Amino acid sequence: MGKTIVNGVILTPLKKIFHPQGDVFHGMKKSDQGFNNFGEAYFSTINFSSIKPWKKHLRMTLNLIVPVGEVRFVIYDDREESSTYNNFMEIFLSIDNYFRLTVPPNVWMAFEGIGKELNLLLNIADIEHDPNEIKRVELTEIPYKW
Question: Which residues form the domain of 104?
Answer without folding.
Answer: 10-18+36-132
